[in-house]
Every structure is written in C-alpha cells, then in structure tokens.
Design goal:
By secondary structure, this protein is mainly beta. It is built from one helix and eleven strands, in the order E-E-E-E-E-E-E-E-E-E-E-H. A five-stranded parallel sheet has the order 2-4-6-8-10, with no helix packed on it. Strands 5-7-9-11 form a four-stranded parallel sheet, with no helix packed on it. It is globular, with a radius of gyration of 14 Å.
Length: 144
C-alpha cells in the first residue's frame, strides 16, 4: 500500500494509529503533525527515514513504536510526554541518543530499545549513569 505524504491527514481525534508494512511516498515523520490527542502510535516497517524529533510528540502519547524503519541521526530523550510508557526504535539506524534522566517521565517503562547489532551511542546529560529504562537490548519476543 502507498500512502501519500506525512501523517498530517490523520483525523485530529484519532486515538490509535497502527500502520505496518506501508510505503510512504514522503518518508520523513513530522511528529508535530501527529494528532494532538493521540495516545498510541505504531508505524512499523513503513519506509520512514531521516531524523525523528521526539521533543514535539503529542502530549498524551503513551506508546510510540517505530520499529523497522530507517530513522537516523540523533534522538533526544530530553522532553518526551509526561505519560509516555514505551518508545521503541529498534531496527533503525540511530547513531546517538541524548538522555536527560531527570526529564524522563515516571511512567516510562522502556525507551529506545535496540537490537545489539545496531546499538547507538548513548550520551547522558547531568548524570554519570544512564537510567536503566533506556537502551535495553531486546529480543523479537519482547516486542510482541
């Protein structure tokens, strides 16, 4: 299936996005164009690429799964939504993850899980040790 453009066309009151194995003609994901009330977003194996800005996610987002795309560059875990529980970016080509432990929400269970062969560099701001919820090595079973 081919989807024209970014996800700006999604209805504003949508509460669950699950898109898999879809070819996007426009491959960048502009997170500020996601529906502002969106709590769940899964875009797995959708040919999405380029940088991903997690600082402009919808405030009510709880789970973000972008597994199996081609996101690259640096990811900032410095201002994610207060209710966020899971951020999964496995099977992408993220080079670096910048984390501020103090800015991680209490509700967070797991962020930036990666397969061992594609693990990015982690940079922790304001602390010597990375929060244990960030950068977990995952298996296929733990994604399901």
């Amino acid at each position: 299936m081919r989807v024209p453009g970014d996800l700006y066309w999604l209805p504003r009151m949508l509460i669950d996005v699950r898109i898999t194995n879809t070819y996007f003609q426009h491959t960048n994901l502009c997170t500020r164009k996601l529906p502002r009330e969106l709590p769940y977003c899964t875009c797995m194996v959708c040919t999405l690429s380029g940088p991903i800005d997690l600082r402009t996610l919808p405030a009510k987002l709880v789970k973000l799964d972008l597994t199996g795309n081609a996101f690259s560059g640096t990811v900032y875990l410095t201002a994610i939504p207060a209710n966020m529980r899971v951020v999964c970016l496995s099977s992408n080509t993220i080079a670096k993850v910048v984390v501020c432990n103090d800015a991680l929400p209490r509700s967070l269970e797991s962020a930036c899980s990666f397969h061992a062969r594609r693990k990015p560099r982690f940079m922790c701001l304001g602390a010597e040790k990375l929060d244990r919820r960030v950068g977990k090595k995952i298996t296929t079973r733990s994604i399901l």
